[in-house]
Amino acid sequence: MPIIQRLGWQIKDRFTGQEHRIGEAFVDGEFRSLVDMLEVAQDEAMIKGALRQFTHSCGYERFAYLEKEGAQIRTFSSYPKPWEGLYLSADYSSIDPVVTEAKRKRDVFFWTAEDWPGRGSSPLRKFRDEAIDHGIRCGMTIPVEGGYGVSMLLTFASSKGDGGVPAAFDSRRAVQLVMMVHYRLKMIAAKVAINPKQVLSPREMLCLTWAMKGKNTLETAAVTGINSRTVQHYLDKARAKLGAESVPQLVGIAKDRGLLSSN
DNA sequence: TCACTCGAGGTGACACGGTA
DNA sequence: TACCGTGTCACCTCGAGTGA
């Protein structure tokens, strides 16, 4: 039985009775920033960095994206490598209660390992103990059904099992987020490798994208929530990497190289 | 395990050119 | 002449990677 019950737009801790409002608890700006950073991500490291930052800002410790197509599993996570390896080699997705629940619910849900069978020596008990050992005790999972029978799960997990539900967000945004991660990973997998010295960091891409949209440093600073001097710093670094002498030239070069989409 | 290196992220101070 | 936008330089912190 889950500890957390959904009550319309609220969730309620069954033990403490404390209610948490879905959506309101979530920092709006963080979500927008994540979407922006995913939009400009050029490689898996940038996606991972953006998700990691978002995960922490929501009060969780780790994230895991899992894609299941028939028997084929693909993972993309900040979970400990040993756990990721064990999960795949032991085919834990077939018994993982989160995966099972995701198939049934098709909606954002909260879970805790404390609710999984804690007695006996069943494979599920072993799975539970190992998950907890690796710092995966409770979390929130967003299940989304993709095309051609592909199932996607995005989980935000925490090692803290002593109550206190971290921030959550509404279903619409949750699905949007999973789809963005899914398609961004697909696009990057299909991309041709480019000179690593010319790869811009997530922040550099963020500032460059706003510059392309006509924002000056102050306006970019306002929308990104960082200091204008910092915006300038990232644009400087981007100029140095792409060999541009000014921001307009930088935008032009970035567009020519397909680093920026014009939407 | 620990020290070291490196890159990313963030900021301050200052200079310079254009403009009202 | 003051203000604003932009560019340059320098510094700090933090986390990840690496080698002893």
Automatic annotation (TrEMBL):
Gene Ontology molecular function: DNA binding
Keywords, in A-Z order: DNA-binding, Transcription, Transcription regulation
Signal peptide residue numbers: none
Any coiled-coil regions, as ranges: none
Gene3D superfamilies assigned: Transcription factor LuxR-like, autoinducer-binding domain (3.30.450.80), Winged helix-like DNA-binding domain superfamily/Winged helix DNA-binding domain (1.10.10.10)
InterPro entries with a match to the protein in the record: Sig_transdc_resp-reg_C-effctor, TF_LuxR_autoind-bd_dom, TF_LuxR_autoind-bd_dom_sf, Tscrpt_reg_LuxR_C, WH-like_DNA-bd_sf
PROSITE patterns in the cross-refs: HTH_LUXR_2 (PS50043)
Transmembrane segments: none
Record has Zinc-finger as a keyword: no
Single Gene Ontology BP annotation: regulation of DNA-templated transcription
DNA-binding in keyword set: yes
UniProt domain HTH luxR-type: residue ranges: 193-258
The protein, known as: LuxR family transcriptional activator of conjugal transfer of Ti plasmids
Native source organism of the sequence: Rhizobium rosettiformans
